[in-house]
Amino acid sequence: MTLATTSARTLSIGPIDLDVPVVLAPMAGITNTAFRRLCREYGAGLYVSEMITSRALVERNETTMRLIRHHESETPRSIQLYGVDPHTISEAVRIIVAEDHADHIDLNFGCPVPKVTRKGGGAALPWKSSLFAEIVTRAVKAAGDVPLTVKMRKGIDPDHLTFLDAGRAAEDAGAAAVALHARTASEFYSGNADWNAIGELKQAVTSIPVLGNGDIWSADDAVRMMAQTDCDGVVVGRGCLGRPWLFGELAAAFGADPSTSSGTQRVVDATLGFVANAFRRHAELLTEFFEDEDRGCRDVRKHVAWYFKGYPVGGDIRTGLATASSLAEIDDLLGQLDHSAPYPGADAEGQRGRAGRPKRPALPDKWLESRELAASASEMMRGAEIENSGG
After folding, report:
1. Residue 352 forms beta bridges with which residues?
2. Whether the Cβ atoms of residue 205 and residue 177 lie closer than 8 Å to each other
3. Which CA distances in Å does 320 have to 292, 295, 303, 311, 331?
4. φ, ψ at 123 (rounded to 5°)
5. d(CA 56, CA 77)
6. Which residues, other chains included, contact 328 with Cβ-Cβ below 8 Å and sequence gap of 6+?
7. Of 213, 232, 264, 341, which residue is 20 to 30 A from 197 by alpha carbon distance?
8. Is the pLDDT at 2 greater than 60, yes or no?
């Protein structure tokens, strides 16, 4: 199996120069320090933290303060913030900058989770154009020399698209880049991402990089997206679940490895033994991150199905890995596998993670009647600042 390669591509986000135009998308419960370190061991790019709620950061919530910590090997350091209040978000940005927690900050306006959007947060917020512009403007000012970017969706639904207006507003506010998950909130993660929308945004936003997100399951997908849309880089989310080595394949595809020339480059030889070693390393890094072997082994359980998708791993071993509470147990179970079993091809490829189904977005009462925020809505929106995955 081979992948197409392209001439060397790089990406600059403000003063940050990346060897490859690749960004790891924030995923709640996934992109902690352990997973980011693992992905870095295989490839290059920018690796963003789990989404951090701005209010929790300002209030110095213990769990949140732990999540914003980076390992000394992580550079550049990246944190994604989520919030609905301009003052709170700007205060959170000031804390990050003043205390040197990150080299890059991203703002999330893509969360499609109903309990967030029904409070006016996430993918619902850019509909209120003045509020969106104020948040980004104040956050950019608070960030100073630290580049601040924006991640968003196409809009609420096909009849209420916001991505072009929001992209221009972010550009005008001084954002260093914008990223588009090419789905609406109503689509959640279902269907196919609309890459044409990424191309439209690229034509509308001309002075800063435009990044594309959605349906990048392989390095070939990333190359195709950039060729089709002319976007400046890709944001990879669910495609790397159970496949942290995808970032190595992306680096090869974009010519980051000097030994890689244009033409074709063989992908990682992902035998079952290779995958087992990656899974074991992930468990080890999680143990180090949590400073607790039992907790680290419990956290890696969610990754079992993703790592071993399509491989000849029996139900007993899968169950054992999904209940193991020590590295020794994991070692014993992995030792029972046929490490020489080859990559299973199509059975291991394609979509990963939950897609969900299209649904009518949950929104505040009369939210769509105006693009300006009613004064009475401010208190209601405070409830949107809860811990959820961004989209």
Report:
1. none
2. no
3. 19, 16, 13, 16, 11
4. -70, -15
5. 20
6. none
7. 264
8. no
- What is the average pLDDT value for the chain, to the nearest integer? 92
Burial class of residue 262 in the structure, from the number of CB atoms within 10 Å of its CB (0-12 exposed, 13-18 middle, 19+ buried): exposed
Residue 299's SS3 state is helix
- Residues marked active site are found at 111
User: Looking at 9-18, 58-67, 374-383, which range is the least confident one?
Assistant: 374-383
**β-bridge partners, 7:** none
Q: Are 23 and 10 in contact (CB under 8 A)?
A: no
Query: Residue 262: what pLDDT?
Result: 37
Question: If you write DSSP's letter for every residue of 142-171 in order, what string do you get?
Answer: HHTTS-EEEEEESEEETTEE-HHHHHHHHH
Cα separations (Å) of 184 from 112, 187, 266, 389?
Answer: 8, 5, 35, 15
* CB-based contact 176:108 (threshold 8 Å): no
Token pair 């790592």 is found at 307
Report whether 350 contacts 106 (CB < 8 A).
no
Please, what is the angle between helix 246-253 and helix 219-229, to 10°?
A: 50
Of 73, 21, 30, the residue nearest 49 (C-alpha) = 30
Q: CB under 8 Å to 223, separation ≥6 — which residues?
A: 3, 4, 5, 6, 253, 254
330 and 321 in contact (C-beta within 8 Å)? yes
Q: What Rg, from alpha-carbon coordinates, does the chain have?
A: 21
Spatial contact of 273 and 243, defined as CB atoms under 8 Å apart: no
Contacts of 9 (CB under 8 A, 6+ apart): 20, 21, 226, 254, 255
Q: State the amino acid at position 200 in one-letter form.
A: E
Q: What is the pLDDT of residues 311-361, one digit of tens each?
A: 999 999 999 999 999 999 999 999 999 999 999 999 998 888 777 788 899
The residue-averaged pLDDT of 152-160 equals 97
CB 303 within 8 A of CB 330: no
Q: How many CB atoms lie within 10 A of CB 334?
A: 22
Contacts of 314 (CB under 8 A, 6+ apart): none
Distance CA 319, CA 363 (A): 40
